[in-house]
Design a protein that fits this description.
single chain, about 150 residues, four-stranded antiparallel sheet, disordered C terminus
Length: about 150
């Protein structure tokens, strides 16, 4: 209990499988790591543009949710063969680096992890469904696929 608000116990193993991490050679990918959304540097792309290219064609729905109140910068949805949870949902959080050179900066890590913790509430599929529907209606944010797939969540 925190400030008279009750939180229910998590019903999943809070372990992150190693295979979800992907190492990126930012220089080889021509990504300006200081440019989160738009990139002014000739020959380079922003972190968002790089991730958008990585997600393109790999998911049934790619939803760009970057804005105030976001669940994540990008959300992907895919139908899977599981009667209990027929849609796999992935949340992607992006942050530009505060420095030009890639490295291990605790401040950058805390900022991204803070976003990830905030989006845990969207594990509630009804809340996520409403969020996606509202964002699609007000902003038209589906980049690929039909957000109607989110009704299956």
């Amino acid at each position: 209990m925190t400030r008279n608000v009750h939180y229910r116990a998590l019903d999943f193993e809070p372990q992150v499988p190693g295979e979800i991490f992907k190492m990126v050679d930012w220089a080889a990918a021509a990504v300006d790591i200081t440019a989160e959304i738009t990139c002014e540097k000739a020959g380079y792309v922003s972190i968002h543009d790089h991730l958008r290219r990585e997600l393109d064609g790999k998911h049934q729905v790619v939803f760009f949710d970057h804005d105030t109140g976001e669940a994540a910068d990008f959300i992907t949805l895919d139908l899977i063969e599981d009667d209990r949870l027929p849609v796999r949902v992935n949340f992607y959080h992006c942050k530009g680096s505060k420095e030009d050179k890639a490295g291990s900066r605790v401040g950058d890590m805390y900022e991204v992890l803070g976003q990830a913790v905030k989006c845990l509430r969207y594990r509630d599929r009804n809340l996520l469904r409403r969020h996606l529907a509202e964002r699609e209606k007000s902003m038209g944010r589906a980049l690929l696929g039909k957000v109607a797939l989110s009704r299956a969540t």
